[in-house]
Design brief:
The chain is mainly alpha-helical and about 220 residues long. It has one domain. Helix content is about 70%, strand content about 0%. The protein has 8 helices and no strands. α2 runs parallel beside α5 and α4 packs across α5. The relative contact order is 0.10.
């Protein structure tokens, strides 16, 4: 006599357990929001942000490297890279991680100055808030651009960072009324900005060329 499956006898529909391979454990939905490699990537991003802040504080204390530490475009690049690192998790995740990484970098910057450069805690807190609040506005934007670049493969998303690199020296010069610091670091930054813009535009042109050749 043919036996009736237990799920049919009980009136319940057969679940996934009927087809689950042996040795695979049942997990509740949402028990792991992100895979383990993403957790490791986030830890790496925040450790890199902390190291970035420490290095920036060390450069800030040097006479010849003071203006290298004051290059704000580096923090925009950090936010874009942080957003790109979690681009597959969507734009909100990229924007949040970018803001968090920038805040971690600034906190490490001022913590290192308090520890090694005898900056008092109150002044460090005031300066941190002065720069962290604008950072919370700019960094999500560049985190979103990182998501567009890495997640959507849109090279034009790199153009705002390229413009920031290429024009920061001009902005400082107009603000102060003179050219700050040695010229070589600024020339390197400007060259990086121009090179990044050219690379982004070339990538767009090559993609359009491939698309045109495919549709022809």
């Amino acid at each position: 006599m043919q036996r009736t499956p237990a799920a049919v006898r009980s009136g319940r529909p057969a679940g996934r357990s009927a087809t689950r391979p042996a040795g695979v454990r049942r997990t509740s939905p949402g028990s792991h929001r992100y895979p383990q490699p993403v957790y490791r990537r986030l830890v790496a991003v925040f450790l890199a942000s902390c190291l970035f802040g420490v290095v920036d504080a060390t450069l800030w204390n040097g006479t010849s490297t003071f203006w290298i530490a004051n290059m704000s475009a580096a923090y925009l690049a950090l936010a874009l890279a942080a957003g790109a690192s979690v681009a597959r998790r969507g734009a909100p995740a990229a924007m949040f991680i970018a803001a968090a990484s920038t805040t971690v970098a600034l906190a490490a910057f001022y913590a290192w100055r308090v520890e090694t450069q005898h900056l008092d805690v109150y002044s460090a807190q005031q300066q941190f808030l002065r720069y962290a609040l604008p950072g919370l506005i700019c960094s999500p934007v560049f985190g979103w651009l990182g998501h567009r670049w890495a997640g959507r493969r849109q090279p034009l998303a790199l153009l705002p960072l390229a413009l920031a690199l290429a024009l920061e020296h001009t902005a400082w010069q107009r603000h102060l009324g003179f050219s700050p610091g040695p010229a070589t670091p600024w020339r390197v930054e400007i060259a990086l900005g121009i090179g990044l813009a050219v690379a982004a535009l070339l990538a767009v042109a090559m993609r359009r060329g491939r698309t045109g050749a495919t549709t022809a």
